[in-house]
Automatic annotation (TrEMBL):
Single GO MF descriptor: quercetin 7-O-glucosyltransferase activity
Family label: Belongs to the UDP-glycosyltransferase family.
Keywords: Glycosyltransferase, Transferase
Pfam families for this protein: Glyco_transf_N, UDPGT
Signal peptide: none
All residue ranges annotated as the Glycosyltransferase N-terminal domain in the record: 12-52
EC number: 2.4.1.-
Name the record gives this protein: Glycosyltransferase
Family matches, as PROSITE patterns: UDPGT
Known pathway: Pigment biosynthesis; anthocyanin biosynthesis
Length: 467
């Protein structure tokens, strides 16, 4: 049998966490696997997925109705109900897909936040592969928490974590937010400690999974990757962004695919077209972060003070927090949309910098497109990403909050000016271009990430051939 034919008979079932920052890299990885000749079906458990997507390129998209997380349940209750629903539904779904496609599923590719899916893979006799959607630096931190939590008291552990051998020295405030508070016993932190258990739980069966993939690339996080790889084999496959934005070749690989948000673009691309090269600050805090009203106002006035053009994504749920009349009074310089085509925006020549919450996808997207950043981390892995943006890769500056935890309008203005103007801005732009090239090299044919994807596809095909 021809190699391509064998590979197309291998069938991967991919299960992301049903949040935009997790669906996007899983979808892109699925597309890359399909481009290597594998058959891939992605299943999204969410009632919020915009229903028009059934197939993207050669990836089949299946949606299963499941209540969305927002506000309805505590995260712990949500996790339990989600796990129960997925483990109940999956065997049924695998049987259905085996029948309907004529290509039995032989691999379960799951988000590392759902480690219990390895048990399901085993029960169904499938290869189990886990995709880590955050940086390898953050994975290093959580892995070490997992290994040391029971052996070292929390305050000592925090110091150890800030001096991990594979990472640059960190302040406590550079650690992921769920880790920063681990020495506190206060009642109000209890949701955070549940979330800490959840993220550290990614490593519960780290050694048992057949494959571990990370959405990063070797040159970006070389020491962190090598160190984690010394604990067990891990494969960087990133940056997982649609290939068009890296090599400008495939017009039909421009979109991630399934979205939980309705785009409300308000002429956003035309608006960008009308602005001068490098003159626009793009502002977005991803799909989850919710800022306080006071903070929203400081950003608003800071943008206004910077005197730059700005395109600001304010999700529908956040809109009411904007200062009154801000939208109307800013119409000359600013445009607000409830959701943007972020990659298209970042690739637009008029965008000069990205004020970001430093979600890992946004960080990789800006790096891959060479867009300098103003890093304004909110929670979870974002502080560690912000540290790398400002001090390791030197592709942006990081805002400082005041004693009340607020980033003032003066600070917002100052950081934007630092990136958009002057000598530091020039250096940041030069570094950004360097990382953009390295990102492209990693996923180009024969690059380090591409090789790892090819190896996986070939190994699945080999196993299929043996059975
Ligand atoms: O208007 C918008 C805003 C965002 N996006 C896309 O949505 C994704 C957002 O992902 P990310 O930047 O990672 O942010 P979150 O949605 O906040 O992602 C969650 O998941 C990530 C991966 O685990 C973590 O790194 C983040 O901290 C966590 O908040 C990106 O691909 C963006 O391109 C759009 O397309 N349009």
């Amino acid at each position: 049998m021809e190699k391509q034919e064998i590979q197309s008979k291998s069938h991967v079932l991919a299960i992301p966490v049903p949040a935009q920052g997790h669906i996007n890299p899983m979808m892109q990885f699925s597309k890359r696997l399909a481009s290597k000749g594998l058959r891939v079906t992605i299943v999204i458990f969410s009632s919020k997925v915009l229903k028009h997507t059934r197939r993207l390129g050669s990836v089949e998209v299946v949606t299963v109705d499941f209540v969305s997380y927002e506000g309805k349940l505590s995260s712990d209750d949500y996790s339990k109900q989600f796990r129960a629903a997925v483990t109940r539904k999956l065997p049924e779904l695998v049987a259905e897909l085996n029948n309907s496609s004529g290509h039995p599923i032989n691999c379960l590719l799951y988000d590392s936040h759902l480690p219990w899916l390895l048990d399901t893979a085993r029960q169904l006799g499938l290869t189990g592969a886990s995709l880590f959607t955050q940086s390898c630096a953050v994975d290093n931190v959580y892995y070490n928490v997992h290994e040391m939590q029971l052996k070292i008291p929390p305050e000592k552990l925090l110091v150890t974590l800030s001096r991990l051998p594979a990472l640059s020295p960190l302040e406590i405030t550079d650690l992921p937010s769920f880790v920063q508070g681990m020495d506190s016993e206060s009642e109000s932190e209890s949701e955070y400690s549940l979330l800490l258990n959840h993220v550290v739980g990614q490593f519960l069966n780290f050694r048992e999974a057949d494959w571990i993939f990370i959405n990063t690339f070797n040159t970006l996080e070389e020491k962190a990757v090598n160190w984690l790889d010394s604990q067990r084999s891990v494969k960087p496959i990133g940056p997982m962004i649609p290939s068009f934005y890296l090599d400008r070749q495939l017009e039909d690989d421009k979109e991630y695919g399934p979205s939980l948000f309705k785009p409300n673009l308000d002429g956003c691309m035309e608006w960008l077209d009308s602005k001068e090269t490098g003159s626009v600050v793009y502002v977005s805090f991803g799909s989850m972060a919710a800022l306080g009203e006071e903070q929203m106002a400081e950003i608003a006035w800071g943008l206004r003070r910077s005197d730059c053009n700005f395109l600001w994504v304010v999700r529908v749920s956040e809109k009411k927090k904007l200062p009154s009349n801000f939208v109307e009074e800013s119409s000359e310089k600013g445009l607000m949309v409830t959701w943007s085509p972020q990659l298209e925006v970042l690739a637009h020549k008029s965008v000069g910098c990205f004020m970001t919450h430093c979600g890992w996808n946004s960080t990789l997207e800006a790096l891959s497109l060479g867009v300098p950043m103003v890093a304004m981390p909110q929670w979870t892995d974002q502080p560690t990403n912000a540290k790398c943006i400002a001090d390791v890769w030197r592709v942006g500056v990081r805002v400082k909050a005041n004693e009340k935890g607020i980033v003032t309008k003066e600070e917002v203005e100052g950081c934007i000016r630092e990136v958009m103007e002057g000598e530091r801005g020039n250096k940041i732009r030069r570094n950004s271009e360097k990382w953009m090239q390295l990102a492209k090299t990693a996923v180009d044919e024969g690059g380090s990430s591409d090789k790892n994807i090819t190896e996986f596809a070939a190994e699945l095909a080999r196993k299929f051939h043996e059975t």
